[in-house]
Write a structure and sequence with these properties.
Elements (H helix, E strand, L loop, with lengths): L6 E8 L3 H12 L4 E6 L4 E6 L2 E2 L4 E8 L2 E8 L5 H9 L2 E8 L2 H10 L4 E7 L3 E8 L5 E8 L10 E3 L1
Parallel strand pairs: 1-6, 7-10
Antiparallel strand pairs: 1-7, 2-5, 2-11, 3-4, 3-8, 5-6, 8-9, 9-10
Length: about 160
């Protein structure tokens, strides 16, 4: 069998206070700069939770550590899986994103009885999907499909 995932592309943590956490990474560990965004239904289209249409809001800060995209997420409402994670587990590593073929991977998960926990499309060109693989892989998996020309919107802030 060929591996379904071919590369780790991102590690993401969920926190209660994004600004405080970003400052710790940058000021104490020299990691950054961080692009900070507020993401909601104006930026993320086709928002879903449990494969049903549902809006949610969150702040996101991103940087690279080597070639790995590193993300800090702070939920801004109680609707998302990020808020669920904070309630159930507290702050910490939320998911790992892997390189894979999005549609084939979603078909694989459907065949194996798994549905998307949450997803959406950023700026109409970057589809992201989370699947709960805690029972077998002990983590939440993210995978993406990015169209040519995708760019994140302008950051709300950059730190430092």
């Amino acid at each position: 069998m060929n591996p379904i995932f071919t590369q780790i592309t991102q590690v993401a943590i969920v926190v209660k206070d994004l600004e405080k956490t970003v400052h710790a990474y940058a000021d104490q560990y020299g990691i950054g700069p961080w692009n900070i965004y507020t993401l909601d239904s104006k930026v993320v289209k086709d928002m879903e939770i449990g494969e049903r249409r549902k809006d949610y809001r969150y702040k996101q800060a991103t940087t690279y550590i080597g070639s790995t995209h590193f993300e800090i997420i702070e939920p801004l409402d109680e609707e998302s899986i990020y808020a669920d994670f904070l309630r159930e587990h507290g702050e910490g590593v939320h998911h790992i994103a892997f390189a894979t073929e999005h549609d084939k991977t979603m078909d694989f998960f459907h065949r194996n009885g798994k549905i998307a926990m949450q997803g959406g499309t950023i700026c109409g060109k970057h589809k992201f999907t989370y699947v709960d693989c805690m029972d077998d892989l002990k983590l939440i998996v993210e995978f993406n499909k990015e169209e040519a020309g995708f760019q994140m919107p302008e950051a709300d802030a950059v730190y430092p």
